[in-house]
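task queued by scheduler; priority normal; single chain, no ligands, no partner chains; default sampling; output format set to structure tokens
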Amino acid sequence: MLTYQFGLDEVMTKINILKAEFTQLHDYSPIEHVSSRLKSFESLLKKVKDRGYPISIDGIRNNIYDIAGIRIVCSFLKDAYIIADMLTRQPDVTVLDVKDYIRDPKPNGYRSLHLIVEIPVFLSNAEEKVHVEIQIRTIAMDFWASLEHKIYYKFDSEIPAHLKEQLYSAAQVANDLDVRMETVSDEVKALHPQEPEDGNQRIELSPQTTLEELLKELRDPGSHI
């Protein structure tokens, strides 16, 4: 379990770096907030027994991929795919499985992008391969999933039919909201190209930029470093 915690820490570090870098380069981050969780031993053991997997270290490692889980919440639909692409292009991240419930929602209306990735964890005397489940969803999807989860456990998985219908209808409304808000965002960007809030011109640097060139740009904006 400690090894899985290390895996969570590594992926969280990657996400925080990407968020900071994206914000610095674009004055905007596709990541609203992030949460992580490590499945409890009791929950893990129950899942192993329910599915008939071998009760052993290898049996758990080779069959349960969601021991370590991370949820990334973003503003817009396209952000989910931007985040997934940024993460999975990293050379030490191996993608094992992708389930796109945004394009193909579950029958109950659930939407989210699920990734199972494998990353190396370097210990003092060994390297361990750790599986981490990453869920990426919009704010609207996250609100719906949170409510559905609470109702699911409130009724011990036996949700009355009329509530299922209302939840499904709410999922359609949440998706419509996502589509509408992304359309609004795109129109705003088209009408008002993004500019720094302080009104100053952003200075673009290259690896070859010298200190002298930087000082010149600060004195004379637009000198094209």
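post-processing summary
- The radius of gyration is 22 Å.
- The chain has a mean pLDDT of 87.
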